[in-house]
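Revision sheet: structure tokens.
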Amino acid sequence: MAQLLATLGLTIGLALANAACAQAPAASVEPNDYGKTETWLCLPGRKDACVVDQTTTIVQADGKTSVETFKAAAAPNYDCFYVYPTVSTDPGGNSDMVIDEAERRVVEQQLARFASQCRVFAPMYRQVTLAALRAVMMGQPSPGNGVLAYGDVRDAWRWYLANENKGRGVVLIGHSQGSRMLLDLLKNEVDGKLAQANLISAYILGMTTPVDAAGKFGSIPLCVKADQAGCLVTYVSFRETSPPPANSRFGKTDAEGRRAGCVNPAALLAGKASTEDAPVHAYLSSKAFLSSGEPKPFAKGLTVSTPFVSLPGLVSARCVADGDFTYLSVKVNADPADPRTDEISGDIVVAGNVLKDWGLHLIDVNLEMGDLVALVDRQAKAYAGR
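Predicted:
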């Protein structure tokens, strides 16, 4: 377990998030100056971590392949503000503000592709580290401080609004710990505030978003159609063949009876309800970064030289409410006549055992990346026309 937690790049347990957020920041900690470019992982108009190869090998059901290139938009009309998940390998409870390879790799997987639609902003923040996660998972008090981490995200958001927004629409994007930060940001800085008028949508991925009986987080509704602005997209993903067990923290109804929100971007784009099955447009990593081992071969005899692979029609998903859990149920449409893989990587595996309570947390974003990017465009147009 210790070895796994030392190498995982995209995970944080809700127990850690809740424990960390209960702490107050040290009085001696100085706030970051987000007017300094070095406090940002990604900013528009510069060659940084978000200017990275997104070339994709597309593998059709008959085994034929093609290469899809990528180009960032020259002058996008709206912005994306992203908060990354738990990736820091720094030794303390909270990370420093130095950009390491871990932060660079996560924006390659989760943010860079959005540059085809929006200006991308990704602040560095003193997040709760993998070391803190490891301590909590081993039954020890967390050395991490979630209030400090959130304060950085809040300060970056306020700097962005004051200096870069200038009335533009903005999409909030986060995963795991980043989504936890954004839920607090939505509650404290957006919902009912002037900034809500600029909200195109919020993508709260890989984290339980509690919603009321009307399907709202505060006053912000879940998205129910593609051409809708000011709404929220959220899900946690599990294999259809391995739904969340009783000990899973993801997707569980909270103590107040609020169910986890679930929105399936692929279904919205297809004009369906989120509970209906729809093929997802996944961009899976060809590297080992997003799994606990080497990725499974994508097709018989296929050698992949691009950073990403897309397998049209192989994977589909729908939102499911079962017992106390609401989640995105992911199905691999295996076909013995199809030369492509009958399985996808994405589970957390320790000593040969799958940690079923985590589901497909490692690839929450990759699974629907193509759909998320397409949905952003539809929502931005709806925002511009309202």
